[in-house]
Amino acid sequence: MRRSGIVAGVLLAALAASTAEARERPIEELPKDLLDIAFVWTEPIKQVAEQSRRFDPVSGLWFGLVDGSVKSVERTAKFFLYPDGGSAETPEASKQFQYSF
After folding, report:
1. Among positive and negative, which fits the CA dihedral 14, 17, 19, 24?
2. Is the whole model's pTM more than 0.70, yes or no?
3. Tens digits of per-residue pLDDT, 41-88?
């Protein structure tokens, strides 16, 4: 019974994917906020490297992980809470990107 549910799910997903219209665009045409959300996971790594140069390696690891995790959460929350590109501080930034997929 479970296998038939899995097979049905895979077939439905394949059907949905085949009916969806694919658009080919170069990566340079993606809006900046989509690139930010795609690479949000690199923020803790960048902060660890920066804080390790600033402090010793052990302190840099902990400070960098905390600082990078906070920045990642902020960027992710900004993407989902303000999907039109705006933020609470700058209302005119909401006019920058209007896109749909």
Report:
1. negative
2. no
3. 899 999 999 999 998 999 999 999 999 999 999 888 887 787 665 555
Residue whose entry in the numeric block shows the structure tokens 């038939």? 4
Which residues neighbour 47 within 8 Å (Cβ) at sequence distance 6 or greater?
63, 64, 65, 67, 68, 71
14: its two tokens? 């394949």
Q: E-assigned strands of 6-99?
A: none
Cα within 13 Å of Cα(11), Cβ side = 6
Distance CA 84, CA 94 (A): 5
Angle between helices 43-54 and 57-81 (to 10 degrees): 150
